[in-house]
Specification:
Distance between the termini of chain A: 17 Å
Strand order of the largest sheet of chain A: 1-2-3-4
Oligomer: homohexamer
Strand content of chain A: 25-35%
Number of domains of chain A: 1
CATH architecture of chain A: 2-Layer Sandwich
Radius of gyration of chain A: 17 Å
Structural class of chain A: alpha+beta
CATH topology of chain A: Tetrahydropterin Synthase, Chain A
Shape of chain A: elongated
CATH superfamily of chain A: 6-pyruvoyl tetrahydropterin synthase/QueD
Largest interface: A-D, 21 and 21 residues
């Protein structure tokens, strides 16, 4: 029987500023535009974590939902929510673009042993980032 | 030319209670938490059925939409909507978790001959289940 | 300076069945249709509570948000979520239609001393009920 | 003939931190909780501006939509979007709560001569602020 | 006891073109911009009809929902859905702006005897029109 | 390191009529139903374009977002928005069904050199079409 997946939605509100140490000031302004404004801005991020596996015939569950919630809260939400991403150790030396954030989240959740299938991040209504590794 | 897929959205409002005959009362309470409350609760379920195929050059369609609607209404919506899932024959001996519901729906729709690609079920705003078989 | 209002959104998932003790079985079937099905069904209810008042110049707040959250959780969400509304004492002798639920919620929240402006309840995507009293 | 209203939706992404000069550090921490975290956080704000008036029989319009767009962009969006609200002159001496932001926006738009009926601000999915003056 | 209101959501997909017989070609182009393009365009319109009244103690209802559905379908949806509004007799001599459409819908529904409180029309995600008469 | 994808959302409002030159009038009426009504109708189309690639370590980006926006606006939105799809050269000899529109959009964007992963089109709230080619 193929796997079933469960996608669970989480949210956090954070500030960030896009500014790369690998680029000059002029390049930063050109590449990031208003996202490079000096004092930063912020977003209501919506995070979708997809896990999957075979369905346990005794419980009807494909994943341990309380364990998933604990891992995402401890590994992501409590760190990121109501913080400035640029000041967090998780983004030390990194530019907190959507692409980088989904990779950072994947690594943190994979390290927690979750049966990850995909990590998706809605940065705004019209911008969504997704990361998944082949299994 | 690769296939195009059409995802069509349906809805039903049902009651359910999570309680497994394979578990003790204490285990049921621990595993399902408030979803094990004695008199049940309910949800507005949103069902996304994805079908696909090559595009017919005469009609521009990749699937027979009226046939899809008939199959989903006859096989799922009319059975589940405004009913208690636990009392339905489709869930006899099963726990109506989201994982189990998407598998039951897949089987019923596959039996109707639909060119299924995926079945997704939104149980709440933040919980989504998906089932798909390799083809 | 006129008041500012704050609308805060809460959610609960409940079962209910529409069946009036004031109506015959045939009238119940005619008036409520599938909502009168014997074993009940359920919804993901979305509750919007609007409170208002002058803006406190020291805090910039028009209402005590933690007190609002406490009152709505203690008075509504903990009672209704993952329960069958028909079995609750709050609906004893009442039919738990959207109209009745918003009135019951208003009374419970008004009794808690909240500066209520409106109570709105989304029963499904397409049905919204609202109650407000003149002040 | 009564007025018709037009509600137009705008968006901006900003950082902010809730910290009042009228409160001690301990009071700020207690009143604002995580919203008082030192480096700020941010939101995708959704702004709804409602204007109204009689319908012009020649055009079928109740308001000058391009003028509305120009006023909201020049007076609000260009100032707030991708900025830290706490550093803007518009919030000098103010705490940028939702309540304060809707009042600041009302004043700026009213000064532009718009036939305002209401200003609503969605700070998160579950928090909405509204300001309207009697006419 | 004050009234409770019920808002019910309906949908129709229509074509329209904004072009006023009271304006010159140049004025039409200036006033309506791309909405004046020669062959028209279209929208998925979302219609919210709010009715209200005292709650019937026997049924728990504030309005006759099947009668509401019949009136809106017969008076609006069946006329407008999958049609070009400019070719309909209801808009003869009128420009089918959102403002005009909500007034036309109000008149048709009021004539059907509904206890109307408001008619709201979402033309796009970011444009909403509302009409209500004092009672 | 696997690719990250970025999905960007665009919108256009267009009229269309489903009528195939390969079918008789009776067949057109049967196959397309109300979508075959003579004067056409319209939709608010929501277009999701997914591109992907490795993340540039200097910028943190997986794609050139301004180039993506330019390509989609120049290749799709400016052509389709506020037009009747049936009158456009892009749909000459084609029936503008959702299936055909996503294929036309894919071809236009692929020709612009975008690293396309998927093209999805929401025609209504309940109908979504998707096209993707194996890479």
């Amino acid at each position: 029987m193929p796997d079933v997946t469960l996608t669970r939605v989480y949210r956090f509100a954070s500030a960030h500023r896009l500014h790369s140490p690998h680029l000059s000031a002029a390049e930063n302004a050109r590449v990031y535009g208003k996202c490079n404004n000096p004092n930063g801005h912020g977003h209501n991020y919506t995070l979708e974590v997809t896990v999957g596996g075979p369905v346990d015939p005794a419980t009807g569950f494909c994943a341990d939902l309380p364990a998933l919630d604990r891992a995402v809260h401890a590994g992501v939400v409590e760190h990121f929510d109501h913080h400035d991403l640029n000041t967090l150790p998780e983004f030390n030396g990194l530019v907190p673009t959507g692409e980088v954030i989904v990779q950072v989240i994947w690594k943190r959740l994979a390290a927690a042993g979750l049966p990850l299938r995909a990590v998706r991040l809605h940065e705004t209504r019209d911008n969504v980032f997704e990361y998944r590794e082949e299994r």
